[in-house]
């Protein structure tokens, strides 16, 4: 009787240990941080201008995974911080096992000041492999909305130091030029609301495969 009791106790301990290990040590089987849509969302036709002054259309997204961030070069805080964070993980993103490479793009929502020349200089400061593009507001606004993002001028553009309010998420576009979800900023008291780069690095292997 005593032997049976010991065996039962041992089995319970082993089972509990197995459950603990599966929950706490086993790698996750899906993205934990990205907010993915139930179905990919096709982008409408669009024409932007890239940092080389060339047309930027759907074909730029096709055949790549793209991480898109809306912002502008005169942004005082969130934009340079987010781009610096993306720069820090970019080498690791390039090493992920995928049939399609990952590219990073800044979509400027300030076409008045962000000329192709300025965009090229700005984006090259972070990484010359990054992409940047913009367009006039009539083209830009519906495209930003199609990405699930928003922006608005917070001041009159007659003021040379005007600011632009914009979404701070990083949008994920698949190699078929479809929006599949986003990484949203981490909201912590007293800290800047920016996307955590480690969340991107942790989830992208599951997303691209």
From TrEMBL:
Keywords, ordered alphabetically: Copper
Family annotation (InterPro entries): SCO1/SenC, Thioredoxin-like_sf, Thioredoxin_domain
Record Pfam families: SCO1-SenC (PF02630)
SUPFAM superfamilies for this protein: Thioredoxin-like
Statement: the UniProt record of this protein carries the keyword NADP: no
Superkingdom of this protein's organism: Bacteria
Record domain Thioredoxin: where: 37-209
Key word Membrane present: no
PANTHER family reported for this sequence: ELECTRON TRANSPORT PROTIN SCO1/SENC FAMILY MEMBER, LINALOOL DEHYDRATASE_ISOMERASE DOMAIN-CONTAINING PROTEIN
Similarity field: Belongs to the SCO1/2 family.
Protein name: Photosynthetic protein synthase I
Organism: Lacimicrobium alkaliphilum
């Amino acid at each position: 009787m005593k032997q049976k009791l010991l065996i039962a106790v041992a089995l319970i301990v082993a089972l509990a240990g197995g459950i603990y290990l599966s929950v706490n040590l086993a790698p996750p089987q899906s993205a934990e941080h990205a907010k993915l849509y139930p179905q990919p969302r096709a982008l409408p036709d669009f024409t932007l201008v890239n940092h080389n002054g060339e047309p930027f259309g759907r074909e730029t997204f096709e055949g790549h995974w793209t991480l898109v961030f809306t912002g502008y070069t005169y942004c005082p805080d969130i934009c340079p911080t987010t781009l610096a964070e993306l720069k820090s993980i970019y080498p690791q993103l390039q090493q992920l096992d995928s049939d399609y490479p990952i590219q990073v793009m800044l979509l400027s929502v300030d076409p008045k000041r962000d000329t192709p020349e300025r965009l090229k200089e700005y984006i090259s400061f972070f990484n010359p492999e990054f992409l940047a593009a913009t367009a006039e507001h009539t083209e830009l606004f519906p495209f930003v909305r199609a990405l699930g993002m928003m922006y608005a001028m917070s001041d009159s553009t007659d003021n040379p130091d005007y600011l632009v309010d914009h979404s701070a998420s990083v949008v994920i576009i698949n190699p078929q030029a479809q929006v599949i979800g986003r990484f949203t900023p981490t909201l912590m008291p007293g800290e800047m609301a920016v996307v955590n780069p480690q969340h991107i690095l942790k989830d992208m292997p599951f997303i691209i495969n």
